[in-house]
């Protein structure tokens, strides 16, 4: 579904953020993207969405070349801060905003808005002003506002930031039950373990590792080398594994 070929990008001549990056992602896959701060995870997402233009290389989503600043309804992007995504006077209007701007008819807009609220479980918030919501409610409203446009690819930037345990669990359950292809960047490694079978580490301008999530994250030396720690739950899992043999 996603084919990234040899893309490079820099904000200025001295600092290449990404250098000759290639990646392919299958339809329906959940891919976790981890790495230290400033490694280029969000930049990579902006390139996939066409917000930024690669210096070279090309990106295809569903075999269509992504062009800079061209709206692509197949890709939905959930920002790290839901307040960047919610700006209308009610949750309902925020969710309807995308379909309205896609030029859809009134009935279709209403249907998509209702469906998106049902899928994310926030029907009861329809008339509430977004700035009165909890962190978890805001996150689900932001997700609903994106899925109303019926993208096939969902991109999440730090989806559990500022969430309490209940909000976090709802996002996990939502992603695990969704039919989308999901790309998720997060420092919450336990969250990535629960939602993604495959993970890549981005560091030093490129993809340094691509593999099975628990195998990659169990490699303590690899994780430390790229500014991360092995998730706590994996220590227990491997101990159990050893004892059971």
Structural write-up:
38% of the residues lie in helices and 24% in strands. Helix 2 packs across helix 3 (106-120) and helix 3 (106-120) crosses helix 4. Strand 4 and strand 5 form a beta hairpin. The mean pLDDT is 92. It contains nine helices and ten strands. It is of the alpha/beta class and 245 residues long. The protein is globular.
Task: Give a concise summary.
The chain is an alpha/beta fold. The protein has helices spanning 41-49, 91-101, 106-120, 135-147, 165-177, 189-195, 213-218, 220-225, 232-244, and strands spanning 2-10, 16-25, 30-34, 56-61, 64-65, 75-78, 153-157, 181-185, 198-203, 206-212. The longest helix is centred in the middle third of the chain and has 15 residues, at 106-120.
Protein traits:
single chain, 245 residues, alpha/beta, Rossmann fold, 6-stranded mixed sheet, 4-stranded antiparallel sheet, 10 strands, 38% helix, 24% strand
């Amino acid at each position: 579904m996603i084919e990234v070929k040899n893309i490079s990008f820099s904000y200025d001549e001295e600092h290449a953020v990404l250098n000759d990056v290639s990646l392919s992602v299958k339809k329906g896959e959940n891919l976790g993207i981890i790495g230290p701060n400033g490694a280029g995870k969000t930049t990579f997402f902006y390139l996939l969405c066409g917000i930024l233009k690669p210096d070279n290389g090309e990106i295809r989503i569903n075999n269509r070349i992504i062009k800079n600043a061209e709206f692509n309804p197949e890709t939905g992007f959930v920002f790290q801060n839901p307040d960047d995504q919610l700006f209308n006077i009610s949750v309902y209007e925020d969710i309807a905003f995308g379909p309205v701007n896609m030029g859809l008819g009134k009935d279709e807009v209403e249907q998509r808005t209702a469906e998106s609220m049902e899928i994310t479980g926030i029907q009861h918030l329809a008339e509430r002003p977004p700035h009165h919501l909890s962190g978890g409610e805001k996150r689900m409203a932001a997700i609903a506002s994106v899925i109303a446009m019926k993208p096939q690819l969902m991109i999440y930037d730090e989806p559990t930031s500022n969430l309490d345990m209940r909000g976090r669990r709802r996002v996990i359950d939502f992603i695990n039950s969704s039919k989308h292809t999901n790309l998720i960047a997060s420092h919450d490694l336990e969250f990535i373990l629960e939602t993604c079978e495959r993970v890549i580490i981005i560091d030093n301008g490129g993809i340094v590792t691509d593999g099975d999530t628990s195998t990659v994250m169990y490699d303590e030396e690899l994780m430390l080398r790229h500014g991360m720690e092995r998730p706590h739950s994996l220590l227990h899992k491997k101990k159990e594994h050893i004892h059971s043999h």
